[in-house]
Amino acid sequence: xxxxxxxxxxxxxxxxxxxxxxxxxxxxxxxxxxxxxxxxxxxxxxxxxxxxxxxxxxxxxxxxxxxxxxxxxxxxxxxxxxxxxxxxxxxxxxxxxxxxxxxxxxxxxxxxxxxxxxxxxxxxxxxxxxxxxxxxxxxxxxxxxxxxxxxxxxxxxxxxxxxxxxxxxxxxxxxxxxxxxxxxxxxxxxxxxxxxxxxxxxxxxxxxxxxxxxxxxx
Amino acid sequence: xxxxxxxxxxxxxxxxxxxxxxxxxxxxxxxxxxxxxxxxxxxxxxxxxxxxxxxxxxxxxxxxxxxxxxxxxxxxxxxxxxxxxxxxxxxxxxxxxxxxxxxxxxxxxxxxxxxxxxxxxxxxxxxxxxxxxxxxxxxxxxxxxxxxxxxxxxxxxxxxxxxxxxxxxxxxxxxxxxx
Lengths: 218, 179
Description:
By secondary structure, chain A is mainly α. Chain A has nine helices and no strands.
């Protein structure tokens, strides 16, 4: 039953979205903010994951939303609106990064051979990090820090697939890489994050967070 | 089928995506049941996906929504605040589009590719946003290392790129060319 409810809710949401999009195209521009409001967190998170800077991420998020409005007539109903919006955001963020940081050297993680094997650390005493801890800002910050420590190519794939819930194919299309590369990078990103967040490194999620420092194996 | 730890680690992400053959899936589950380390890897990875997939990880800075709403409203056609800015932008767009229309009127009816060696981009999704450079001949996915003249690039829909005579990059658009 819950699945049916979710499915009905999702169908209703899609119907509402289609109606909104049609009305916006017909000139009711004031409705545009209603259309993008459910996704503003996702838009910001996508921009931030790429730019790693709050001010730039916010600016790019705004630009991406305005671009979506400008191109709303080009949106086709066979794609999800949210996916289309995220794709625009990722493109905008990558452009901004290329423009502003062209002189910077890529993080060392990005030169890593993604085809090489990666051995996850041995934590026999793995303890699950409870979802409730996400209520704490410092936990969310630590998770964001861990994500930020990944190389760009791993971070982008992880954010699109595991945070934005894009499919493997949508992620591949958005980033202009093959689905096989998405899978390889996703594996590496998930393993690295698992190692970074492992409570066995000296901290306990119930009391204090601790991350491995200076001993990154990658 | 029997698998070792390295094989489990290599496929563990695909396993969670339910993207492994039934035979391999059974072998992995058999191995994981008897291996503490692989159990820990699987639990840890599941935990990572669950944590980062939580909506609480998508929080925005204080005031973000308000600022976004204001920016959107300012840029809507008809907005009092943004009316002047919008008119200037619209007028500029009309002038540019008009100029392009005159310059490329023959291209619109009979698109010609800028490069005689190019392949048709018929398989590229028309709404996909792609990148072109002013003096280039091909369009690319954002991030493609073969984009020329990165200082003068634009993001446009693939449909527009094709209409302007750009051909798909044979590297980053490869899958659409062979499809």
